[in-house]
Amino acid sequence: MRSILVTVLLLIAVLWIYRETVEGSAGTRQSVHDRGASINGTIERINP
Question: pLDDT tier at 16 (50, 70, 90 boundaries)?
């Protein structure tokens, strides 16, 4: 019973860390999106 509780708590901790790291307001997903938009704007401004 104790090992099940520890496993569940560990899974909750891992999911919480993932959510805060990737999906948070300053997470990597938002950072990649912002960088992509910046690069897209730079490419559009290139005058051939």
Answer: very high
| DSSP 8-state class, residue 5 | H
- Dihedral sign of CA atoms 19, 24, 26, 30 in order: positive
The two structure tokens encoding residue 28: 């990597």
From the centroid of its chain, how far is CA 31? Answer: 8
Q: How far is the C-alpha of 35 from the C-alpha of 39, rounded, in Å?
A: 6
Match 């948070």 to its residue by tokens: 24
Higher pLDDT, 33 or 24: 33
Task: Give the predicted TM-score (pTM) of the model.
Answer: 0.58
For the chain, what's the residue count?
A: 48
Instruction: Please say whether the beta carbons of 8 and 14 come within 8 A.
Output: no
